[in-house]
Amino acid sequence: MSEILSRRVFLKRVGLLPCAGLATAAAFGGKDALGQAAPADAGSATSNPTGESPIIDAHVHVWTHDPQFPFAPETKNPPARDATAEQLIALMKASGVYRTVIIQVIHYRWDNRYAASVLKRYPQYFRGVARVNPQDPAAPDHLSRLVEEDGFHGVRISPSGEASGDWINGPLMPPLWARCRDLKVPMTVLAPVTRMPDVMRLADQFPDLTIVIDHMADCPLNKPDELEKLLALQRFPNLFVKISHTWSLSAQAYPYLDSQRQVRRLYDAYGPKRLIAGTDWPLVEPYCTYTQAIDIARFRIDFLSTEDKRWICGLTAARVWPLLDGAS
Ligand SMILES: [Zn+2]
User: Is 17 contained in some domain?
Assistant: First the structure.
């Protein structure tokens, strides 16, 4: 796609060009997808009159080498490269991506200041998910400040599958989950699939809380029975699953069709309105380009209908984070 065309596509994405056909082609890629009829319930409060839907990438990271935003002391080998908001915006424009959700990167540990600065500078492009120290009794108050003052929309916790991650079953979790509920922001969980029973115990306590499971719980493809632990969470209507990491789970080359069997099982259990696409940029770049990563859910999953893609590539994320409320 030429730079001129991609810029036109992006401007249309943000409502600055009246060119529905071009933007629709950018959204779902073409004749095959567009040729499918949308199901009867296609109309939704978040779809616009032209029938097109914005592409939202629900999982990216940003960081920069800047003395103003030092990496955490625990980060012994920080990445050599930058992954700045400006780099990401350029990629978004080139790929027709409307907005992205920035997940606080681990290199900064609990210091969310760089992501907060990005949210303040570019509110028209980004939403943000913060990290707090889950073993700090003050974590709920830190989260309140991050949401109310810094503009984050939720928090991510990441218990390991080892004993060092057993804090997810400890006394500090219910207060943090309750604070998420009270703040009306989602709780995102990055954890191996073996932790899903622990998530279930907490989800049972907070039926009104929106919960997002990252990366299909990174369930290994050679352990398909383990996915049952994630499928069992289907009974929580406010629980969503990112279908990212097809690239890291796969043993194949792009477009990683072996991992799409797992996506299919999640699709059958959760449906498109509870599945979310995300790239995990820039971590995806050793595997494929940003545009290729966007295109996995947009073009490369054959069993998805045009309407399914509308949800998985954008509208579901817009249910979880406020992403379609106009460029603020
Ligand atoms: Zn990530």
Answer: no
